[in-house]
Protein 1
Amino acid sequence: MTAFDLPIPSHFDPTQVGTVRRVPYQDIATAARYWAKLHSLKPAAGDKVRIGLLPIDCQLTFCGKDFELFVAGRSGNGAIDDTRRLCEFIYRNLNIITAIHPTLDTHVAMQIFFDIFFVDEAGNHPTPMTMISRGDLENGTWKVNPAIACTLGVDYMLLQHHVLHYAGELEKCGKYLLTIWPYHAMLGSIGHALVPALEEACFFHTQARHTQLGLEIKGGNPLTENYSVLQPEVLHTINGKPIAQKNTRFIEKLLKYDYVIIAGQAKSHCVAWTIDDLLTEITAHDPQLARKVYLLEDCTSAVVIPGVVDFTDQAEAAFQRFKDAGMHVVNSTQPLDTWPDFNL
């Protein structure tokens, strides 16, 4: 196998990345099969060097400007530019990407990071982007909404103890404070879907290389945040009982690839925590495996809401830590034969 840049198919329109539209699957399938013959692309099952691409949460809820949590970055156009470059990367490297595993952040209304979960003494809910510390819960600034306990079928005092434990665990582990997010990535919504331009590129890849798209669902547990696709933010209750489990199956799949390439949204949150969890697993197996992980720095942006929050510095610090551990921070436009430690 050799690395070479394929041309980008004519159906791809970079000006339409981030828009909502229907993917014409049958037409794309026909075009992809023609493309495979034209460029002598072989089925991915025969790849001697296996490369997994992990696009994290490239959904309309994060990547569409009119949606709930558009990841603007400091440029103001972050996730759209990132997705355009990621689509182009997939098309140019169809011949070497073995499989694509997009993650899908997936939520329902009653979850610990949505405003309905908490109330103040007057019964008001916190506004989006409120950060709730353990101290806020101890002093009564916020408490669990009693109606939530009924809905979830959990004893109210037990749920109150849970959120105290949960907020404390986040602080003890050096993670972000419990954040109240705008409703986003709601299961069944348009915002939950992959950006159509990326969905189209992924589908084109499945048809050109005869490989299945490996979608990974995360985020549905009502009692924990789940930035990382590999595990939730907090694994156990105050009594040591499991809240949720590691995604051991997917961890093992990623570790079996010769190379793993990571992109997506947001650099400061779901991307950073997924990489952090992957690095933890790598360190436990063999720290040298970090050198087979490549982070597409120009295909990811931090959460920035002007005048409210800016997580850019935290994102940059995390990527520097990953680089120091042996992972490679690269750009999607770099020729792959110039990537360090990358040998086909």
Protein 2
Amino acid sequence: MYRNRAHRESHPCLRSIRFLLRAERSRGIDYTLQSKRLQSLSERWHPQQIIAEQNSIGQPIIEQLTREGLRIDSFTTTNASKAQVIESLALAFERGDIRIPHDPVLIGELVAYQAERLQSGLLRYGAPSGQHDDTVMALAMVWSAVTTQHRLVYPMPDSAIVVSDFHIPEHWPRAFGLDIRWLTMAAVWGALDPQSDVLYLYSEYFEEVESAAHVEAIRKRGAWIPGLFETQANGRDRVDGNRLLQMYQSLGLSLQMVNNPLESGVLKLWERMHTGRLKVCASLSQFLEQRRLYRRDDRECIVTERDHLVDAARCLVSGIDRLRRKPVPTLPASLKPLGERSWMS
């Protein structure tokens, strides 16, 4: 939040500085009282966005607050998403891009916050044993929202596109979009409601294993469902992409090549989201996390990291005319009733 927009814009040296206006914390307080306090804060500050962690018991609380009239955007805390927002906040402090009030609890948690190097080489962030990092994570989520919201490719809350999982009618045409990078494969399945033209993303797959294991996992969700694959994605040339396509076809995947340029594909996916013709089942947690982080950099180029499932969904939408219905099994002529057999049978 900005303390004074006009003052900020008239002084170039302050253009990149954001000010934390207030820190509020509640612990050991009844939920009803906490909800009323949050309502009061919202009425006072009129925030454009309220962000809440949905891990553990967070999702039921988010749903309740939404029913009470608050617009809540969820944040799923994983090692990847936590590292991104914490590192962004640390860089902001180093550059002097953020100012915070003299809040002893917040400052204490910030000073104590630490990074631990894992055997894998990755960093794990958190508070020391026995301490808390609630205010640090809250500040990191706020900073991420304030600084990246204008660069998000799909800037809309989950509530606008997420639906509860449901049984997909058998007659709806289906397909899956596929993204392949070395040993990592990502797939997103979609089914189209023929009457409303709404595409429902209902299943996801994101693993790093050998090719045969990928094929087995994908075929279990319906060997008849066609896959849509862009041969020249991720920097591949056409020859290499065609070989990859043929390799997975020989392993048993029903794959079709689809033309999926980045910018026009992004626009097609955005238009479906924006017009309500794309919905995502709530169980697709990894896709939803990647969609929240999908953004452009300072040069307006799309950041191509942690985007496997989003790219797979883009393939699906770009080839939406390739969706097909489940084949109806036919009986051999010898098993058909006499009235249905050819007179030459």
Protein 3
Amino acid sequence: MPETTWNHALEHVSRTDVGLRRANNQDAMAVMVATDETSWSQRGHVFLVADGMGAHAAGELASKLAADGIPHTYSKLRDQAPPDAIRRAIVETNSLIHGRGKADAEFHGMGTTCSVLLILPQGALVAHVGDSRVYRLRGERIEQLTFDHSLVWEMMAAGQVSGNERDHVHIPKNIITRSLGPNPDVKVDLEGPFSLEVGDRFLLCSDGLSGQVTDEEIGAILRVLPLDEATEVLIDLANLRGGPDNITVVAVHVTGEQLTRAAGVPFTIPSEKPTTRVHPALWGVAGVCLFAALVLGLMEKTMPAILALAGGVVAAAMGIIQRLGDRRVRGYVVAGGQLGQGPHRAYDAKADEAVVAGLAAMADQLRDAAQREPWNVDWRQFDALEKSAAAAAEKGQFDEALADHGRAIRLMMGQLRQQRDRAAEA
């Protein structure tokens, strides 16, 4: 029996949290893992994060429609290559959300971001609208595969401002330039396919995470900790920094060579340019020959006129044949081509002194808050982790220090959540 590639060699974890300042969760997520070899080879595995926008119920509905509709529609379009199918699924879902918004005043203008990761035999393909993000961690580098459709990113792309988006505090961060729902049409970014290697980790997240946790911190935490721990620590860190928005993360880990060496049928990839063009010289030759035939005919030079006419007809026929062939393949390039311009950012994912110091400071703030409040905390385990982290940092063992600080934060936040939940039930 050959090794399967659809239910092994992949680990994934998904979590969502309402945050500290929102009454409801307008984020949504979806995971659709292939259930058999045929589904794997045709559709792959689907991971999605959506961040809704609008009034109380509108944002929730928009993101839910995206999380439900896009994977469902994509899975049905098996006669289309994955890039075409996921683009069409997003476009059709946009129409659905837009229609619901127009039909009910309560949902008017509602919208949602949408970031989709497809793990396919051909590699990782990303489809994206809005400012939610998809990252890939490989080794000690984390790359942002998506372009933020936000005002600040658009201004940076246009050369109106320079540097990093965090440098421009005067530009509102919550203004996005593209989303599903508000307009009848939507432009979908496709990125990839990106190669897969054993050990690769992907992270999809809403801006509730990326707005509070730096890319370097995301990379280091995702690299050092197991997926289940890393996702919890990332959410805890965003909440400790104010938790102003809903926080959703979906993490994917390539654990086996089956995914990296899978031999699927190559798909064609949409392109903005035709793959074949009519060579301009053909039209030039045709024009010259036909003009010469006319002149020679007027001069009553019959045989040269016939030869010139024949040359013009042949050249024109070749141009028409190329043009028709161009229509048959227009908009596609053969497999191996690359969609989009990603990765759009790359950062160091090492657990260096600065990243460790940031987590240590958060752990200290958490300790101070717990001591001021009547919280029932297992100080013995928390203190042991913090002591171990400090010792590792002293030795320059920053991976170990980060892991221990992260686990201490996760331990404390987990105990606080349990106490909050028990108090709510009482």
Protein 4
Amino acid sequence: MKRIRRLLYPEQPAGLPAPVFASVLVLASAAVALAAWQADSPAPTPAPQQENAARRPSPYRNWLNEDVAYIITDEERAAFKRLPTNEEREKFIEQFWLRRDPTPGTDLNEFKAEHYRRIAYANEHYGAQIAGWKTDRGRIYITYGPPDEKETHPGNASGKPADEQWLYRYIQGMGNNVVVEFVDATGNGEFRQTVDPNNPNAVRLVQPPRR
């Protein structure tokens, strides 16, 4: 019986029977293989809805950098960026439009309605290579409204590019008869603003809005 037992269950150096020792080896190998598989496995990808939500621009960022980019003051911009919650941002936006409402207490905020009408007009008429509100003509139109007079000169065969001249009879803070000129130097329909040499104040119109 002892001889048969030695043949069936030979003793290992550590004194463990072969079946027990084999089981330990199998479990250890499985643990190592599982760890290696987890290390090589790619990280789980987010669901499409989560990924799209992460890439979607914040509506408050769009409001600040697009909707009111040309009319918000530096002080208002800095104050808005300091707000920590969406509730406070919503309240700020509400007060922003109320401060500009020419007829407070009525259902219609004429300033807000006119502002978004200008954005829509700029996107429809001045967009070529980029969105209309980003162009020079769109920026001036949104900021100061339609010009009192406008002259348009098409380009000619001699190489003179097409241009437009917008006359504003009065702009607050700039004075009377402000002329803004735009030139389509590349011929692709994107009119860029130039500076009227007869009106040094027009230089102030060249500066893009701060981001």
